[in-house]
Amino acid sequence: MIFRTLISVTVLSCVGLVDCWGEEPVVAEPVSFNAQIRPIFTKHCVACHGGVKQASGLSFIYRDKALGNGDSGAPAIVPGKPEQSYLIERVSSTDESDRMPPAEHGPALSAREIGLLRKWIEQGAHWELHWSFAPPKQPALPPVQESRWCRDELDHFVLAKIESVGLSPAEEATRAQWLRRVSFGLTGLPPTPDELQAFLTDSSAPAFEKVVDRLLASPRFGERWASLWLDLARYADTKGFERDPGRDVWPYRDWLIRALNADMPYDQFTIRQLAGDLLPDASLDDRLATTFHRNTQTNTEGGTDDEEFRTVAVLDRANTTWQVWQGITFGCTQCHSHPYDPIEHEEYYQFVAFFNNTRDCDVDEEYPVVAVPKLAADRERATRLDRELHQVESQVHEGVMKIATQGDTWQPLALASAQSTGSAEMRIESVEGHSELAVEGTISVHSKYTIETLPIDSKLRVQALRIDALPTDEADAMKNSELGFVVSRIKVFLVAADGKESELLIREVYSDESHPILNPDDSLDDNPDGWGEYPKVYGSHLAVFLFDEAVEVPAGSRLRLEIKQDRVTVGDHPLVIQRARFSISAAPAWRTLLDSEAHLAARQELKDLREERKKLGGPLIPVMVERPTESRRRQFVFTRGNWRDKDYEVSPGIPQLFGVQTKAPTRLEMAQWIAARENPLTARVQVNRIWEQLFGRGIVETVEDLGTSGTLPSHPELLDFLSVRFMDEQQWSLKQLLRSIVLSATFRQSSQTTPEHLAKDPQNRFLARGPRQRLRAEMIRDQALVLSGNLSDKMYGPPVKPPQPEGIWRSVYSGEGWETSSAPERYRRAVYIYWKRTSPYPSLMAFDATSREVCTARRIATNTPLQALVTLNDLAFLELAKGYAARMARLEGTTAQKIATGYCWATGHPPREEIVDRLVKLHDTAIKNHPTTRDALPEEEHFALTIVANALFNLDEVLTQ
Amino acid sequence: MNLWESLAARRLEYRTRRHFLHESLTGLGGFWLVQQAAANSELPAIDPARPTAPRRSHFAPKAKNVIYLHMAGSPSQLELFDYKPELNRLDGQDCPQEFLEGKRFAFIRGVPQLMGSLFPFHQTGQAGNWISDRLPRFEKWMDEACFIHTMQTDQFNHGPAQLLLHTGNQNLGYGSMGSWVTYGLGSENQDLPGFMVLVSGGHTPDAGKSVWGSGFLPSVYQGVQCRSEGDPVLFLSNPAGIDRQLRREIISAIARIDQQTYAEFGDPETVTRIAQYELAFRMQVSASDVLDLSQETAATHALYGTEPGKESLANNCLLARRLVERGVRFVQLFDWGWDSHGAGENEALNRGFKQKCEQMDRPVSALLTDLSQRGLLAETLVVWGGEFGRTPMRENRGGNVMTFKGRDHHPSAFTIWLAGGGVRPGFHYGQTDPIGYSPITQPVHPRDLHATILKLLGLDAKKLIYPSQGLNQKLVGVKEYRVVEEILG
């Protein structure tokens, strides 16, 4: 299978985008830019005159640059006038030194190609967008000869192509064959004997429709399609990289299964995952959907730079968004403008900017996280509580900031001395008339600062202390973040002139953030948390410490501050204040606020709400949370994609190619654009993906690339027809889309291959026969579970660990182990298996599952001896074979009859006599071979049937749908 | 009519259409090859039924196989191969600012102190090259091995640096060197995987199994890990109660039924599957056989210092020889435990590192001796190294003086060596500055090393391509690279 794929990818991307059906002579009809001209440019020109290189200011990717004058001033293309077009002169030049492309870059254009270019210029040099960048239009149904064959409108498009190449459709598959195909297709499981029986004996007209509706309504539906989406979401149960520790994200998987089962319209499904957190009145489920982009890896390796891996995650989010929804190799533009598609380097970073302002920053705890209760009712309750909490927090914070930001509130403190534990050096300097603390040298972890002020004004009744924590280099921090800080514990003492000290108790702490991740009040306890910006800072921050009582200051008194800073990064970087200013306030407004009924009530409410929310429980799930607009991270263009080499600043935006007008769009608006009816790619990409799942190859074979470098669609009108119908008539309903396809005549064809078909269409591009695909990794396991009679239909919850060989997990610095689940947990569907990125479940991996480190748009099916070893020897499969054998053993009748029925369960049809004979022979050999000396084995008959079951698991027919 | 009768009746209709089908299963591979050749002459010609069949290289190879010994964690070049008397002289002094500005370190904070080599160096061999006293056995190979002292990487954390070294990219999702080589050249022995991986030191490397993954390359080219406990290759052994004869019977029955399936559906994949089951059956014997160290003589065991039944670098070195002897194309060893920060005893240069050297010196030297004695060294390229180097400064984790002595990660300069397989014996390429901080001659990036290894194998790095993500992907990536011609013999 893989090699077929390999071959066609090769043809189309290396030879350029020649139309798939070979070279045709130049005809008098209008030349098609997309079908005939662009492929010439792509093949011969864009390597130097494209996106990466635009030699002489000329590019054949951008219309204005191709039709412009270039550096030479001579127009390469003069519409209507080939003889004045420099392009024609150069490509047809017989002078080797003048000819384009130069000999060392490639062969000369053929006479036919030059003829086409000439004709195209003559006809006015009409430029077209690449096909997939223009919105799909409803195509007319093409005329066909055998219209009776068609069951769905989509069949017309398929049949027209079949007829045009001189083939005819295959016969209809047997009911059993179709049932197996559609059951795997929709639910990832084989039909049960009862389901088969019911279908075969159903003579009513809508028998097929009844089957499809049953399958679409099955809870198994969501599990099957989730397993595909989880590849795209690079979902795994571990954080990735070195230690690869576990992470709780399975509630996202459950959200996905629920959303798919509920047939959430694809546009809503899209918006929620990309920006559910920004929806007005976002529910907890909406926020949970955004875990889609928190599935990026978190690097917990000691000594890694959190900003670096935050950046890696942010870029991954941009790339994955394009990969999943737009089917474009957007990642190309990280380092340079797109080599084939009209997307500029700068536009990459404009898009990245949508994702660059979330609060997560590669920390081990994966902040920000939200507790997701199990029950729907509790999640609704949590939604309400979270909303209230947010509101009250804002209200309290607003009250504090109103006073804190008044111009005359603060008096700067002049510092007298400062010391630190460890080896840090402290300096006090005067900056802009403000006494400022600066920390230098080799700073130790857990540094505790002791700072003394000069005597303060005795007229003041001090109400509050303010600390402004500044980055070492404020201008640079915006671009290249600095290490953050956390004030784990602060103590303030009043030191009288005679040296007598008294501690000033602090009642409440507020930072400039209204909803900080770490609670600033924790600076008053001995835990390591507290006010801070963790793990990185991008600018200055302030905090206000409100004293329990107003402080009278005897003349000559000073303040002494003790600041403990106990937080470190994984690389033992100390998280300490680098530079700071201190001030005090005597504003009476503080006292009024602190003692006001409203404030006290709000504080109490916060406490109650937090407690109530905590009681709902549930694992803590990483979600997307936007940073406040005022401290928005700024996005720069990275020179040649290097995140440490930042060029100029850009604002969020969507590539110009798509003509979006919105000014300064938000992440939500970006998501809405992707999900919009006008987006040319979203529906096509999804329809193509669904088609690939059902037929084994997409209408565009490169499911991951519908751009210029991808393959051309085998049936462009079919793709557009399906896409338009998906958006309009089917209202983005995945279930309706699937229903229409699986009931089509195209899908109902037999997969038998005639030599004629094989010769004319080895890869079944023309769909003149039904699909025959190897099962996906998950389906192979799930089918064995069904046959064993053990499949658990339990849904949702933490991942499970079915048996795997000993010693698979050997990650460094990790005590985590594989504790094999007991029944019935171990018999749950593969979608629930614990997915460790650096060491995924080996039997799934053998069948082309991926490690889910990055988004996988297409699993390329291989056929290897290691796969054979899995289904033959894996003890997990053997255990299931035993169950399967036990089911056969319980049947009435002769051994041959038992085996025949067992075969039927596995394939959906009865065996031919010689097959039964062969399996009976195997059975008899096994009886003779029964190793009677071993106690652990099942008794003879069961053993022999287990051997038969082992063989059945490995039949080509059983591994195939 | 009951269920099965009705089904059987339907099937009968299909059987009448079997006239076009023939039992012969030959010719399909050829069919694909034709397709392939038509597609692009630069891609390896791959037969889907035998995807690891040997293929022609771009030009005459000097080496047939590779044994890559990766010391995961990265051993200190300053305690082994990069002799720096000036650094010894400056021991204990503050590191000058110029070396610190704009640099990022994993654990070093503020101003660390320079630290001279903990072990004495001396000259050895005919060429009089410098080596420390840690590798008394390997020392005898100094005139054979070829050193690169100016390796330089972009990454200063283990995971990304290992990925960069083995896949050409610091991010996940790219194919490893071994998978590229097997994709390009196939393998000599069809009864064994073409790319095999052996791990010692108790852990997989920091970057996990991705360092031998196939990334976007077909998964058939990913490395197959040989294990020290349980099955030597996952799922290789028959379950208890199924002996080889019964397994034969099972596979024959499967093949017989699959042939009928093919006759009915005509799907070439079915034919491939039959072939893969046969290969799996042969592999059960050949892999068990090649991984069975008990077949070796006592003298050989003594030479390597193997520890039967235990996971060890010594066992893996001996296995590596057995694998290349049987024509496995690429053998990748990972030995974990070289990350000598000094944060604990095992990580201390003066403790754990000393032991690691002792454990490594003997088997690695034995491997060279053994390969040489069997006439295999000339065609086997042996590569040894870590993913980066170690700082000339002593680590001061958390800004404190640490109990043990260690060095931090150092991407700017490190030493690797190559031997056999067409490299220039006894040659030392490149020079670092007097404290071993940076190269003062041209640095060698992992992609340069890749291109050089490929060249030794007869492959042109520019032509070894695989189309993915809209790009003709290459092991060496898209940036400029060069073959280090100077080290070619």
Provide key terms for this protein:
heterodimer, A: 961 residues, alpha+beta, Jelly Rolls, seven-stranded antiparallel beta sheet, five-stranded antiparallel beta sheet, disordered N terminus, B: alpha/beta, Alkaline Phosphatase, subunit A, eight-stranded mixed beta sheet
Question: Would you give an account of this structure?
Answer:
The complex is a heterodimer of chains A (961) and B (489). Chain A is α+β, with helices and mostly antiparallel strands. Among the domains of chain A are: 31-128, no CATH class; 265-372 and 628-674, no CATH class; 410-585, Jelly Rolls (Sandwich); 875-953. Chain A is 37% helix and 11% strand. In chain A, strands 2, 4, 5, 7, 11, 13 and 15 form a 7-stranded antiparallel β-sheet that branches. Chain A has a 5-stranded antiparallel β-sheet with strand order 3-6-14-9-10, with no helix packed on it. In chain A, strands 1-16 form a two-stranded antiparallel ribbon. In chain A, helix 7 (175-187) crosses helix 10 (220-232), helix 16 (376-404) packs antiparallel against helix 19 and helix 28 crosses helix 29 (895-907). Chain A is globular, with a radius of gyration of 34 Å. Chain B is an alpha/beta fold. Chain B has 2 domains: 13-41 and 237-287, no CATH class; 43-233 and 291-487, Alkaline Phosphatase, subunit A (3-Layer(aba) Sandwich), CATH 3.40.720. Chain B contains 11 helices and 14 strands. In chain B, the strands form 4 sheets. An 8-stranded mixed β-sheet of chain B has the order 6-5-7-1-8-11-4-12, sandwiched between helices. A two-stranded antiparallel sheet of chain B has the order 2-3. In chain B, strands 9-10 form a two-stranded antiparallel ribbon. In chain B, helix 6 packs antiparallel against helix 7 (268-290) and helix 9 (313-325) runs parallel beside helix 10 (352-373). The longest helix of chain B has 23 residues, at 268-290. Residues 9-40 of chain B have low confidence and may be disordered. At the A-B interface, helix 1, helix 8, helix 26, helix 27 and helix 30 of A face helix 1, helix 2, helix 6 and helix 7 of B.
